[in-house]
Amino acid sequence: MSAKSPRLRAVLDGIPAYVPGKPAAEGGAEAFKLSSNENPYPPLPGVMDSALAAAGRLNRYPDMAATILLAELSERFGVPVSHLATGTGSVGVAQQLLQITAQQGDEVIYAWRSFEAYPIITRISGAKAVQVPLAPDETHDLDAMAAAITERTRLIFLCNPNNPTGSVMRRTELETFLDRVPPDVLVVLDEAYREFNRDPEVPDGIELYRERPNVCVLRTFSKAYGLAGLRIGFAIAHEPVAAALRKTAVPFGVSQLAQDAAVASLRAEDELLGRVDTLVQERSRVVETLRGQGWAVPDTEANFVWLRLGERTVEFAAECERAGVVVRPFAGEGVRVTVAETEANDLFLRTAAAYRKEL
Q1: Residues in contact with 81: Cβ distance below 8 Å, sequence separation at least 6, in sequence order
Q2: N or C of the chain: less Cβ packing under 10 Å?
Q3: Rounded Cα gap, residues 81 and 69, in angstroms
Q4: HSE (side-chain half, CA atoms, 13 Å) at 347
Q5: Residue 134 dihedral angles phi and psi, to the nearest 5°
Q6: Long-range CB contacts (< 8 A, 24+ apart) of 173-176?
Q7: Could you tell me if 356 and 295 are in contact, meaning their C-beta atoms sit under 8 angstroms apart?
Q8: Do residues 100 and 121 touch, judged by C-beta distance below 8 A?
Q9: What is the distance between the alpha carbons of residues 106 and 130, in angstroms, rounded to a whole number?
Q10: What is the pLDDT of residues 293-310, one digit of tens each?
């Protein structure tokens, strides 16, 4: 028997695996997971009924065309069905976007730090990742990103609000940036946290897509809609891009449970907005309390807060875990903390206050 292993792509060397948010420890009286930006509420009204009904048909393939869901999305956002494509969460669609645009020798631009899947899926595609550091105020440095564009640039990711900082790009600066991007470069507005934004100067990416054929908008049902466990997201893009996404989709990748649950969630819009408003109110309370404790907390329009702790990051995360709240550390940089139910937020704030007093 040969001792050699199958020959794999060299590009995989050194690519880190995606690290999910650490789960809360089981068995404790208080244990909260604030590490994955999940919605703390159960599925919206009607969702469980739809999912259970679909579960009774698990012996059948799902509707690969997602016909009913796309019709709902088309009506909800006022876009043609031909401009829509679904995938296994918005990150699944993001990977498809790289499949249709980038290959060996091409370049993909994104801010850093931003969504940690960007470097992974970029390198898997074979393209070169061009990371542009965030500005000192934790926002995208759009001037530097525009200056980084070359003839090899094929795709640009803009996470708005940005994960993990919660910072946003406002209309004027975003439109100015888009005017500087060549028309043959695809700009992806990743709006996974769009529903939590309350800044009136932050544009809805769908408005920008309508007049710009090189703009694609990513949305997900994982965050505000609370369907993280079903993995379903979608893109809104002009027909050449959307059609290419549908070509590269994994056949039957989006389950019927996910499709039906997404439709039911869209039809429960009033309940959704109420839940999001509650989380936004909690977000404001968390930010104000942390600042009152002496922490430097950047403005956030997402369902999380960001603490840049540098070398104290891992230590602080460990202290939180001992107290019963699991946060998301990015070693040497900072921690991201999901805004959750009041009890969890209170426990985190008490832990942060105690840690602050020790500094």
Answers
A1: 70, 71, 74
A2: N
A3: 10
A4: 20
A5: -65, 155
A6: 173/142, 174/142, 174/203, 174/208, 175/203, 175/208, 176/142
A7: yes
A8: no
A9: 10
A10: 999 999 999 999 999 999
CA distance 75 to 137: 38
3-state helix, strand, coil in the chain (%, to 5): 45, 15, 40
Residue position matching structure tokens 């309940």? 271
Q: In the structure encoding, which two tokens stand for residue 70, read together? A: 């796309």
CA–CA gap between residue 187 and residue 241 (Å, rounded): 11
Element (H, E) at 292: helix 269-293
Angle, nearest 10°, between helix axes 313-323 and 342-358?
130
Over residues 27-31, the mean pLDDT reads 57
Query: Contact 339/283 with Cβ under 8 angstroms?
Result: yes
**What distances in angstroms separate CA 50 from CA 117, 124, 136, 173, 323, one per listed residue?**
31, 36, 46, 42, 38
Residue type, 335: V
Tens digits of residue pLDDT in 317-338? 999 999 999 999 999 999 999 9
Distance between CA atoms of residues 142 and 129, nearest Å: 16
**Cα–Cα distance, 120 to 283 (Å, whole number):** 30
The Cα 128–Cα 93 span in angstroms is 19
Residue at token pair 């590009």 = 11
Burial class (CB in 10 A: 0-12, 13-18, 19+), 260: buried
User: H/E element holding 153?
Assistant: strand 153-159
Q: Is 307 exposed, middle or buried (0-12, 13-18, 19+ CB in 10 A)?
A: buried
